[in-house]
Amino acid sequence: MAYFKDEAELQQILGALFDRLKTDANIAPKISAAKIVIQWRYDEPKATVTIDAAHPPTQPGAYIDVHWGATSLKPDVEMTMKADIAHQFWHGKINLMAALTRRQIIAKGPIPKILKLLPAIEPAYTIYPRMLREMGREDLVLTK
């Protein structure tokens, strides 16, 4: 079962998560400190999102910038996966190292930089399901 019906829904839902994370004072400064550009390339449905923690943010109150679609930024790390894997990851149901080993997530670039960010984003595993409930999307909340 695909969690997202199309790119617009994926961008609406994950976009809401990233909008929260980029201003979260507990999470975003730790991502910003990494001075990295990370690009996620999703399939089923297709979408691309780039997190820019290498440059000063353009939005007041944000620590990082989030760009959907094409961008001139050159990513330091590219992560390619099915959108369903991303959905499970943001629930805390996917172990990044296991997913990399199983090739559920294909990574290009300095993987240790990404692994160092895992403790910083761990609070998102609670934020994401709560946000889905707030959006009225209880159907997307993973309970197992």
Please tell me about this protein's structure.
- The chain is α+β, with helices and mostly antiparallel strands and 144 residues long.
- The protein is globular.
- The chain is built from 6 helices and 5 strands.
- It has a single domain (7-133), classed as SCP2 sterol-binding domain (Nonspecific Lipid-transfer Protein, Chain A, 2-Layer Sandwich), CATH 3.30.1050.
- The protein has a 5-stranded mixed β-sheet with strand order 3-2-1-4-5.
- The chain has helices at residues 7-21, 28-32, 83-90, 96-101, 111-121, 124-134; strands at residues 37-43, 47-52, 65-68, 77-82, 105-108.
- Helix 1 packs across helix 6 (124-134).
- The mean pLDDT is 95.
> How many helices does DSSP assign?
6
Mean residue pLDDT: 95
In percent, how helical is the residue content? 25-40%
Order of strands across the main sheet = 3-2-1-4-5
CATH architecture: 2-Layer Sandwich
CATH topology-level name: Nonspecific Lipid-transfer Protein, Chain A
The arrangement of helices and strands along the chain is HHEEEEHHEHH
Question: What is the rounded distance between the termini?
Answer: 15 Å
Can you summarize the main beta sheet?
Answer: 5 strands, mixed
Q: List segments where confidence is low: pLDDT < 50 over at least 5 consecutive residues.
A: none
Q: Output the radius of gyration.
A: 14 Å
Measured by DSSP, the beta-strand proportion falls in: 15-25%
CATH class: Alpha Beta
The overall number of domains is 1
- Name the CATH superfamily classification: SCP2 sterol-binding domain
Describe the global form.
Answer: globular
Which structural class is indicated by helix and strand composition? alpha+beta
Give me the count of strands: 5
